[in-house]
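Example record

One chain of 410 residues, shown exactly as stored in the release files.
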Amino acid sequence: MARLVIGLAALLSFGLSPACALKKAQSEAAAPRPEGVPVLSATVTQKTIPLQVKAIGTVEAYSTVAVKSQVGGELIKVHFTEGQFVRKGELLFTIDPRPFEASLRQAEAGLAKSTAQEKQTEATLAKSTAQAKNAEQQARRYAELFQNGLISRDQYDQFRTAAEASAQTVQADRAAVETAKQAMGADRAAVENARLMLSYTTIRSPMEGRTGSLVVHQGNLVKASDTTPLVVINQVNPIYVTFTVPEKQLPEIRRHMQTGRLRVEAVPQGSSGPAEEGAVTFVDNAVDSATGTIKLKATFANRERQLWPGQFVSVTLTLANQTDVLTVPTQAVQSGQQGSYVFVIKPDQTVEMRPVTVARTAGDDTIIEQGLRPGETVVTDGQLRLVPGAKVKLKSGADSGAEAGLKSNS
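Predicted structure tokens for this chain:
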């Protein structure tokens, strides 16, 4: 019985095998054969591409001022809040002015006294001058009388001596007047100094900028020209960005600077906002021998105040615009043992592996010096499945310009 079952099973298996094989062959014949490797493509184009240098820069304040007091006293009023933007001349601090007001009044009193003394000496000089003139006239008259023998020599000598004494008095009074004038000038200078010291009790902003942390608070005593500032102000409109570039680019930078201003763009790291635009305003006078770089500085208007001192920014220095250069998307360029290459799609939908000479990369574009012609179509995605001569098919979403170029070439 067991042998009969085994025989029937073998017979059924033998009878079904040809049918299964036929069905499999028919399904394989009905299945569509692939028309080519699906790829994305782009057209080789001519563009105007800026010649740029990328770097990382640091933002620096255009000017920094440490505000200090020029007089000592109690800080009785702070007129701003920390981090506030202040304008030039805006009141920042007030120091107790009462001691300086008293000094000013004392100096003004001294000036009034010396002015009165100067006027008194002027009057005394006028009086002595008149007396000396009268004595001189009398001496001349008595000299004529003495010559005519009408008076004795003793009488003449008395008038002559009186005239000389009056002249000496005039000289002394003139010296007193000069001394009084000098004293009045010194007192006037003391008044100006007292007035100046009083003005120092109100501290104003020397420039427009943003205040930092308040170091000395209201109610504390401050010293004249103390080493610790009351507050530090940074000018951020305009503002500097400092960055370095390799020394080999210095000759080209200097050459382009002679033809005009070099535009610089700066974007704070991690920021999605628009780039700030400025221009190179400083090139250092020496190359850093340790790093082989040279420092440049660009000035930005910073109207929106995106840039802050101490911030790191991505810097793009534009040297010039290169016209009619051949470009392809960067993802089209592959690297091999023989160098860079691209897959070029020919009119018959097959690919050719073409070696190319790459000049540089600008954003998403790669500039090609040799190896391609304008209007040719290159593969931008799917290169890993390609070999020279392989047939390709443009996937959905491929460059419509590439398809048009292929049709026109065919």
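Notes: Residues 1-22 have pLDDT under 50 and may be disordered.
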